[in-house]
Every structure is written in C-alpha cells, then in structure tokens.
Amino acid sequence: MSDRIIKFGLVGIGSIGQHHVNYLRSMDHVALVGVCDTDKEKADATAKVCGARAYYDAIDLLDQAELDVVIIAVPHYDHPAIAIEAFKRGIHVLCEKPIAVHVNAAKAMIQAYEAAKGQKPDLQFAIMFQERTLPFYAKLKEIMESGALGKLTRATWIHTKWFRSQAYYDSGGWRATWAGEGGGILTNQCPHTLDMYQWLFGLPDLISGHAHIGKYHDIEVEDEVTAYFEHASGMVGHLIVTTAELPGTNRMEIVGDLGKLILENNKLLYYKYPQSMLAFSQETDQRFAEWDIAPEEIAVDTNVPNGHHVVTERLVQRLLGQQVDLIAEGPEGLGSLTLANGIMLSSFQKRPVTVPIDGNAFQAELEERIRTSNYVKKAVQAPAANPDMSASFGTTK
C-alpha cells in the first residue's frame, strides 16, 4: 500500500466532531492537520491534544491548512456553504448527515461538486451514512438486491429508539429551532433512517406526512412523525418515528410476493412462502386461508467492522488509489432529504405531495416559520466536555 498520508481537516468540534477526532487519530495513512471551531477555546484545546493547528474560521482552514479532505460536522445549515468552498479549492469533502436542510441547498451543493470535477476529475464527495455498514442493514440490502422476496408489497418501519430528553434539546441554542436546525427528528435523528429506507426500496412517487410539532417537548419543531409512501411498483411504505418513547422500538417488516422479513432486536426472521402470495390469492378456491410458516432466522455476522471509521476508511482507500466503492456518495444524500422535506411539506400543506418534491414550496414554508417564530429558547445547558455519543448512534436493536 502507498506510504502517502492523507491530510484531514475538521470543521466543527461538537459531540460528533469530537468523535471524528478520536478515530482519526488512530487511522493509518491519515493525519489530522487542522481543526476549526468558532469556539476558540475548544479549537485550541483539541488542536493541542491531536497535534493539529487550530482555526476559528472555515475559510481560513481551507485556505491555509493544505488539506486533502475536509470533514464537515457543523450545524446543518452550514453544510452546503462550507462544502461549496471546499470544492472550489479542489478539496475532497466528507459531510455529516444531513447533506443540507432543504433540497434546493443540497442541489446547489451537488452542482458545485459536479462543476469542480471539471477541473479535478478525481474530486471525491462522501456523506456520513455509517448505518449502511451496520451488519443487519447490510444483510437486508443483500436480500433486497437478490430479489428473493419477489414483488414487494409493503414495508413498515416503526423506529422510535430516538429518545431525547428536554435536557438534550436545551443543550444547544441552535437545537430544535427552525432557524438553527431547520427541523426536528427528521432533520437530526432520522436522516439515517430515511437514507436506509430509500437505499433499500428507492424513493416513492407519493408522500403523505403527518408531523406533530413540539408534542412531547418544549420545542418548535417536529418530535413525532407518521408517514405513508406509495411507490411506482405498487409497494406501500409506512414510517413511524418519535423522540418521546422510552424504551423505544425498532421493528421493520418487509413483505413481498414470495416471503416476509422481520427485523427486530438484532434478529432477522425470514418467512418463506410455499408459493406466490399474489398468485394464490387469485387462484385458490378457498375463501379464507392461513399459512403456518415457521420462520428461518437469517445468520448475520455482527463482528464485521462498522461505523463512522469504516466510511472514512473507504474514502481514504479510494484516495490512495484503490478501486473501492464509497459507503455513500455525497449526492446520494439528496434521497433522504427528499423524504424529510416531502414529509414536512405534506404535513404543512395537509395533502399528499409527489416526488420529486417542490423544493421552492418547502423552502418557502420553512422560511415563513423562521420569519414568524416567537419561540424563546431556554437557557442553554452546557453538555459534558466529552459526552458519550454511543447512545445516539444507529442500532438495529
């Protein structure tokens, strides 16, 4: 393997930014040469620990640190602006989720990337969808691509393992506000869930969303959502998410013409049908029927490497000249954002919306809520200096 060292910069040293710092320091062929945060004390302290230079403005980092790659881990609204400036300078980008707050900004970001590749064809843009590396989700993807279930008819996902307390929402002045975060559970906790849905099933043609604003918390954004999707294939999808339930549930049911999968509590069950379900319905002379099927538990290797560092390692491997696929190409971030914006636009307008969604309509709705907001944020409660992020990372349990 090449002896080349890939020079990384990091913008944003909040909780997730610190997580990036921790694993980057142990990676081969990587040097973290610059860290940036508007909090000078935080930037200085992090730089001292990891032997990097501290910056307090993202443009200074991009201009002065001689970077190969920049990791963007700042509040969501700032993702596109920093990425676009990096692309202009020929710097590879690894962006935290979501790609942006609204699809118009995401499209501008992707257009800037495509334009920059005209000058630097090997320019890379990755997005941090580390849940694609989780063993059970990776197995689901494998099964979906095999076509073993036949024609898909339904996918239902109850994912309420996103508990967040009021203390969590009070821990940052930008959190759970239209102006600071651009949304609630769909923007912050569920980009991975939404990405996983579209990764497995593709985007629907029609979205019907029902979002409840501050139902369980003192916030001005959504903390409970139910969505219904219609796909061109005829498959329907359901998504139920909230940050209020404790203990929460993470249960996915995928029903096809030839079988059914149920994923819950780190157990993947496969119900293999004796014949086509849809053909049986048309051909049987029975008015009522029931198949007594014993499910097979699908073996999943849970020891495979997974998580944030795998996404970054794959990018590093590509930059070192290896022919590997990224875990998620940056432009793929538009899919999950389309679902998030589409659900909220449907809820705002109290009607189903078609995909591709009207980005201008969603942006107008968002800007109107920012303009008319009279929400007063409580005094911010400072989080621990190095909070344990493990409880916030995706799990199939």
From TrEMBL:
It holds the Pfam family GFO_IDH_MocA_C3. Residues 6-116 form the Gfo/Idh/MocA-like oxidoreductase N-terminal domain. It comes from the Bacteria. One of its GO terms (molecular function) is nucleotide binding. InterPro entries: Gfo/Idh/MocA-like_OxRdtase_N (IPR000683), Gfo/Idh/MocA_Oxidoreductase (IPR052515), GFO_IDH_MocA-like_dom (IPR055170), NAD(P)-bd_dom_sf (IPR036291). Residues 137-261 form the GFO/IDH/MocA-like oxidoreductase domain. This is Gfo/Idh/MocA family oxidoreductase. It comes from Paenibacillus rhizovicinus.
